[in-house]
Amino acid sequence: MLRVTVIDDDPLQAEIMRRLFRTHDDLETTIYEQAEEAIDALRSTKRERLPHLILLDLRMPGLDGHAVQRVLAGDDHLRPIPVDVLSGSTLESDSARSYELGAAAYLPKPDALGELRELLGDLIGLWRRVLPPPGGAPAPSIVA
Known about the structure:
By secondary structure, the chain is an alpha/beta fold. The chain has five helices and five strands; from the N terminus they run βαβαβαβαβα. The chain has a five-stranded parallel beta sheet, with helices on both faces. Strand 4 (83-87), helix 4 and strand 5 (105-108) form a beta-alpha-beta unit. The two termini are 25 Å apart. Mean pLDDT is 87; it is low at 139-144.
């Protein structure tokens, strides 16, 4: 079972992802609309129940995505969880900063629902193939 945590403050985006992910039987999804709430919940989660992947939006009130990445990187319990940034921003500076802060991937969020569904399906398919061990240990390399 692939465990995915989504952190996205947009209720519409969160609901779209919730509905899209429901179509995957072997996917356990937790969605947070507030970064602070997500971090608190993740910190109190037992290592073997941590998500295999975090999907993170950048533009959020309070802690933005880059601030969340810094918090995750500074926490020994949470640092190993791969983070894919899924953002509406197409700015090269946002992408570069996300990678500097340790993002596994930076994915521009498509506007069209069909494209978002395809992107998320591809993403989940990829992570199923490189499923990291529970506790968010780094995924094996997909590059031979």
